Amino acid sequence: MNAQSTPRISADGTVLHLLLGEAETRFHAIWLRDNALDADTRDPGNGQRLITLGDLPDTVTLTDARLAEGQLHITFQPEGKTCAFPLRWLADHTYDTSAPAPLLTKNVTPWDSAMAPPSADLTALQTNDDTRRDWLASIRRYGFAKVTGMTPREGGLFDIVDLFGYVRETNYGRLFEVRTEVNPTNLAYTGLGLQAHTDNPYRDPVPTLQVLACLENSATGGENMVVDGFAAALRLRDENPAGFDLLAGYPMRFAYTGSAGVALHSRRPMIELSPDGTLQSIRFNARSAAPCTDVPFDKMADWYAAYRRLSDIIDDTAQEVHFKLAPGEAFIVDNTRVLHARKGYSGAGNRWLQGCYADKDGLLSTLAALEAQDA
């Protein structure tokens, strides 16, 4: 990327004006100094800062700015220090914009029942970086993906987590069984159908990824379903913006006390937005809902109306993708976005799945490293 004019420094030296492409962009002197890329400011090996703000002068100004070979060279005062910034790096990190933050980030695409589940073979994922990168990118974009070609064995789902990160152990253990039990501690262990939901909303933070792998599935019924919680939230916002704001603006309460020695509670909104308004997560699980006491009396009826409508949208078959796992198949969901469910199944035959949790930071880190190889 080439700048198209000479960079300009404001009269007081605190702001840099730079033309990047077709638009003029401004950077504060203190921002540039804090984010300098030189070896005295950042470790050349790991990129971590070697300074704190307390190491910088109280007032930082610029006295020189020039372009050379695709880089901007800036001199900071009172240090008399000159640092170089690649123009591409500046373009990627510009913050001088009046546009509101998008509701969805650029790598997220909402979907409905027309969605074809992304899928990849486990051996290919383990041996081919391109396959693994594309599969991980699908999870980032759509919030779920399938895995085929597994050996249906106990603990085999850990091979999926090993592709990108680590198992997150909970009170359910490193893995949990999903099959019919007598006197179950959780409704997931019965043959009942389950409404689409996110897992463990009573934790803070919630496990951000869930893996479910099939070892046996000869029972009648029991198809898996997934619903895009972001798409459901967007549909609610289009139909009822005020209701969307109520669900995003007040916390829901969730609780789980179904096992001895366990009493989990959380207080978070069903639709969670970042401070700048980007959709961040969905928490929806009727089985784990606790009495909501944080909505004002005069807003409670409208809050419930929005809650009911979101529930109806989630139950709409137009929103769901369904599939029946065969032994040796698995799927992974972003538990902050995608709701999962299952149809009811009969007592005839066997249905045995194993599940575990992991965290999205490992997945996104592995994906970023793979994408950097191609840059």
Automatic annotation (TrEMBL):
It is an enzyme of class 1 (oxidoreductase). Belongs to the gamma-BBH/TMLD family. Residues 115-357 form the TauD/TfdA-like domain. The keyword Repeat does not apply. It holds the Pfam family TauD. InterPro entries: AlphaKG_dependent_hydroxylases, GBBH-like_N_sf, TauD-like_sf, TauD/TfdA-like. PANTHER family: GAMMA-BUTYROBETAINE HYDROXYLASE-RELATED, OXIDOREDUCTASE AIM17-RELATED. Its cofactor is Fe(2+); L-ascorbate. Keywords: Dioxygenase, Iron, Metal-binding, Oxidoreductase. The keyword Metal-binding applies. This is Gamma-butyrobetaine dioxygenase. GO terms for molecular function: gamma-butyrobetaine dioxygenase activity; metal ion binding. Its EC number is 1.14.11.1. GO terms for biological process: carnitine biosynthetic process.
